[in-house]
Amino acid sequence: MQPAETAIAFRAVSYQVRNGREVLHDVTFEIPSGEILVLLGRSGSGKTTALKLVNRLLEPSHGEIVVHGRPTRDWDTIPLRRHTGYAIQEVGLFPHYRVGRNIALLPEIENWPKERIAERVKELLKLVGLDPEIAERYPHQLSGGQRQRVGVARALAADPPILLMDEPFGALDPLTRADLQHEFLSLQQKLNKTVLFVTHDVREALLLGTRIALLEAGRLVACQSRHAFLHSSDALVRRYLETLGEISEKRGPA
Amino acid sequence: MNFWDFMRQNKIEVASLALEHLWMVGLSTLLAVAIGIPLGILITRKPRFHKPVIATANVIQTIPSLALFGFLLPTPWFGDRAGRIAILALMLYALLPLIRNTYTGIKSVDPGVVEAARGMGLTDRQLLFKVELPLAASVILAGIRIAVVISVGLATIAAAVGAGGLGELIFRGLAMVNNSVILAGAVPAAIMALLADVLLGWLERRLAPPRAA
What we know:
The structure holds two protein chains of two kinds. By secondary structure, chain A is of the alpha/beta class. Helix content of chain A is 39%, strand content 25%. In chain A, helix 4 packs across helix 5 (144-156). The longest helix of chain A is centred in the C-terminal third of the chain and has 18 residues, at 174-191. Chain A starts with 5 loop residues before the first strand and ends with a helix. The mean pLDDT of chain A is 91. Chain B has helices at residues 3-9, 11-45, 50-62, 65-72, 82-107, 111-119, 124-154, 167-176, 179-207. Chain B is elongated.
């Protein structure tokens, strides 16, 4: 194995909460550089926990996570987090900053020159399909879809090689979500980031994932390519896949 | 002699007592801000200090003001001058609203915003100064506003230990059984409290984070 080609590796990772309940149990998988790995699972399966272990919002109880060849515990949290862009369902835009400043905050903290920051903000807004003039607005003046786009732009601001995304399109209506999913896919092909993407939506997983890792009650059930996942014989995987055709099968043609 | 005549004839004295009053309230509030806000921040960071700090501030709040002024009389240095006692006592009373509002203000920042800020790699200090304090500012200011309004009223009692201020006129009026003199202390104090309330209320709204109308 060449560590340079593996962006993120989970090695026998377990995570226990304080009362002893095990949220993750002995999870091992790898994400090669430039791939989108989707962590699929129902609520409470531990997928968000797994994501937070990567940028050390949480620390593993056992095992280790290796980011670009270095175990996370050997990283300082701050450079590690600036190395891994973070976008979440709640978005968490700073309500007291305009959109432009939201995106510019990290480059500002990293002391980029002013002109380069202004340029970067414009570039990113265009990249996520927004009019750069939106930079002057406050987050509360945006629609849900615009907020999510700004969230992704902010996660990309300091050009991190890795993106961690926790249901970033989860709170959107199905049409806007589909738009964002497709745009995100073409964006990723352009930027070639390594992405760890958490979702409970099997459709989204199949659309976005180079590979899909299925978590159930803290255990990794499967981690395979989209193709292998679609043809898996695993009972749980089949159940997820069955939900895709459920409506037309059960209710018949309208 | 009616209230207006008294005010007209004693305007210099009333004005200087009002200034003294303002000075006691202003200085004690500044000290309370300097101590209360950092304490409020501390207990958001170290939860084990939360209970003892809030409990202490609560207990201080329950001491009757006249008693507190009395208790402080024999303390070294403070006891030497009545003004010092007054400022210390007023500062102690102002602590609770400041600590509590700082804590509540920071704790009520949207957890999604805090998580996003941490996840993007802000240091604890950057999180505090760029995100939490700006978003908590209006709640903290509401605490300052409560503290000031209470202080203006409480400071009238400081005259009981000889600290001066508008309470001086109130106590004198009580001794003389003269309502005009009482009012000469009470009315300016009430006006001062109202003005402070309006001014700080305006500032509080200015500092509130923008949100949907």
